[in-house]
Structure formats: C-alpha cells, structure tokens
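Quick review question:
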C-alpha cells in the first residue's frame, strides 16, 4: 500500500514522502494522538551532534502515540480498536537482555521512522489494546509512562528492601510520572520530590514532600533516588542525590544528557551506592502500564494534569507550529491531534 511519511530532513524542516509498504500480516493503524518527547526536540532543533544528525536524518519523529486500527488481517485486533503503538521493534530475543537494550533493536524516531505517518503498518505485537474509553489526550504519552514503569520494575529488583523515603529529582514530566507511579506502587513509602520550580512542584499533589533543590538543609536523607532531570540539570541532580542518599541506596538514572556527567565516585564508593540506568521500554512494560490504567484509573486523572496543549495537525505547518509551541511551553506535554 502507499503511505505518506512526514520526515524531518533538516532541523525545523519537515517534508512528506510517499512510499510503498508491504502490509501483509500487519496491522494498519491510523495515528490519532501523538505527543512530543524531549528526544524529538533534540532532532527538531538540531541540538544533537552533526554526526548523529547526518546519520539519522531524514527520519519521521515521534515515538509517543496512539491510533485506531483500520484493518488487521492477523485477527489480533478489530477495526476501530484504540491501541498504543510500541516504538521499539526487536529483531532477536535474548535470555538476559531486555528488548529495549538489544543493540539490534530498531526504535521509531531514533534512526528509524517514527509515528508521523499517515498510517503505521505494524506487526501485531507492536500494538497493545487500550481501554476503549481512555482519555486519548493522556493515552498519547503512554510510552513515557511505560518508561517509568520499566525503570520502577528494575528498581524493585535491584534496590534493598528499606523503601521508607524515595527521592525523585526533576519536576518535569518524567519526575511527575515516576513519582506518581512510585506513590501508587509503594503506598507506604514517602515520595520526596526535588525540583527547581515552585510552580511545577505545586502540581505534585500526591507527593509526601516537595523541595526546591537550593533549600534542602534539614530535609531527611532518602533511602533511594530517581534522577529525572536530564540535560545539563543531570550534573547537579546526581551530585545532590549522592549527597542526600543513605548508604547502600540505589540511584535510578533516567535523564538523557548530551554531554558526559562527572560523578563523585569517591562518595559512591564510600556509601556503597548502586547506580543503574534505564532507557526506553518493551512490550511487557506497555502491558503493565495498560493494566495500571485498568486497576488504578485515578492515575489517568493525575496524568491529565500534564496535558499542556492539544494541537490539531492537518498540514505540515501545523506540525511545526506544535513543535514550536512545545519549545515555549511552561510545563507538561504537547499533544498533537493527528489528522494528516
Ligand atoms: N530514559 C528514558 O528512556 C527517557 C528519558 N527521558 C529524558 O528524561 C529527562 C526529563 O524529561 P522530561 O521530564 O520530559 O523533561 P522536562 O524538561 O519536562 O523536565 C526536567 C525537569 O528537571 C528540572 N531540573 C533541572 N535541573 C534539576 C536539578 N538539578 N534537580 C531537580 N530538577 C531539575 C527542570 O527544571 P528547569 O526547567 O527549571 O531546568 C525540569 O523541570 C530528559 O533528559 C529526557 O530526554 C525522557 C523520556 C524517556
Ligand atoms: O525518549 C526516549 C524514550 O522515550 C529516549 O530518551 C530516547 O529513546 C533516546 O533516543 P535518542 O538516542 O534518539 O535521543
Ligand atoms: Zn521519549
């Protein structure tokens, strides 16, 4: 079948291309609601290195999104079903390495075309059925929620059992979602959020404590920590985490940084800390996230507070307008109602 793909060909330049794609044994999904990730912005604005841009562009952006099934000759879905699309496509299985860490996996919007397409032609295992009455504007960023689900599931295996105070550094989207999911999963733990913006911290209504990072004297140490700042903010966040965590704590690193981050390894050694990184997610994380939506519908209500704007896209200028609006946003997620 013929499909139109909207590719970033150079920073801030999106162009359509019509390609012929084989849909045999695949599910055809019309993207309906997409959401912009910081990773998309790094390509859109051209803040990645020239080598990376030269290697990955032209490429359709966006790896957060949902859609409606048009047809499925595999029988897994019914036409009209609302599904979340999975950006990670593994090409092999490994007994020990999860699909999102296999170097052979293909990730939409990072080296391979993302969801900015007229139709997504997916193997049935790259889509998961959503509750059919789900708030689509919120479900659009289920991928980001699945990344938090993934990191917390790994934390659960790695961290020692005292989980009385869990610190989250970062008052943006990732910090909000990680804190919310930690609160839901460990209702007896105190969730302590550290951020840079009083206005954003006000939205963390489910957290037990919120603190501005430059006013932490007297704040009790945490047993474990999640770093959700990213960018240049990672440096100060990791430094403060190492300072404000109890011995033998576990530090979950989630923020992406363009530059290397210096780490106070002396104190990592002295405190016996465990640092581990998490990136992306796999099918089981999406399934667990959808299960969470079913079992804890209040999570979707809390996530709705993150929707900053919903932007209709009917033509390419609407897409670029959404990316530009995302750059200027005060907080939250920029959602695109996809009508291309
Ligand atoms: N591991 C993964 O698979 C994924 C990683 N990410 C990455 O996670 C990071 C966060 O994403 P997202 O939440 O969407 O981005 P946001 O920009 O929404 O949030 C980052 C927040 O951290 C705050 N911050 C900066 N420095 C510190 C600090 N020292 N301590 C505490 N908070 C600080 C920022 O404040 P201010 O704005 O004032 O600087 C901002 O509010 C990004 O690097 C993103 O690329 C995203 C998705 C998946
Ligand atoms: O956002 C993410 C997952 O949701 C990751 O940060 C993203 O996949 C990193 O990819 P890239 O190397 O292209 O920045
Ligand atoms: Zn992302």
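Suggested answer, residue by residue:
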């Amino acid at each position: 079948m013929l499909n139109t793909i909207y590719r970033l060909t150079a920073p801030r330049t999106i162009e359509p291309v019509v390609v012929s794609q084989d849909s045999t044994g695949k599910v055809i999904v019309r993207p309906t609601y997409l959401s912009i990730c910081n990773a998309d912005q790094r390509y859109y604005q051209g803040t990645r290195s020239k080598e990376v841009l030269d290697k990955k562009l032209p490429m359709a952006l966006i790896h957060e999104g949902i859609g409606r099934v048009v047809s499925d000759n595999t029988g897994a879905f019914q036409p009209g079903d609302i599904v979340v699309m999975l950006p990670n496509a593994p090409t092999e299985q490994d007994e020990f390495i999860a699909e999102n860490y296999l170097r052979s996996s293909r990730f939409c919007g990072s080296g391979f075309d993302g969801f900015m397409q007229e139709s997504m032609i997916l193997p049935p295992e790259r889509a998961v059925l959503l509750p059919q009455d789900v708030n689509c504007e919120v479900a659009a960023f289920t991928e980001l929620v699945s990344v938090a689900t993934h990191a917390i599931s790994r934390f659960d295996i790695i961290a020692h059992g005292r989980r009385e105070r869990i610190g989250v550094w970062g008052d943006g989207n990732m910090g909000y979602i990680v804190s919310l999911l930690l609160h839901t999963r460990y209702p007896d733990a105190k969730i302590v959020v550290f951020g840079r913006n009083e206005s954003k911290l006000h939205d963390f209504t489910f957290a037990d404590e919120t603190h501005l990072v430059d006013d932490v004297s007297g704040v009790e140490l945490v047993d474990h920590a999640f770093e959700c700042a990213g960018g240049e903010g990672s440096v100060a966040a990791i430094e403060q985490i190492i300072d404000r965590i109890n011995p033998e704590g576990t530090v979950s690193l989630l923020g992406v940084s363009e530059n290397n981050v210096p780490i106070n390894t002396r104190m990592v050694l002295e405190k016996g800390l465990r640092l581990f990184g998490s990136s992306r997610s796999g099918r089981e994380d999406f399934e667990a996230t959808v299960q969470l939506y079913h079992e804890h519908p209040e999570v979707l209500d809390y996530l709705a507070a993150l929707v900053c704007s919903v932007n209709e896209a009917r033509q390419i200028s609407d897409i670029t307008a959404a990316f530009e609006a995302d750059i200027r946003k005060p907080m939250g997620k920029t959602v695109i109602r996809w009508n291309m």
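Why it works: The CA atoms of residues 164 and 189 lie 5 Å apart. The chain is about 30% helix and 25% strand.
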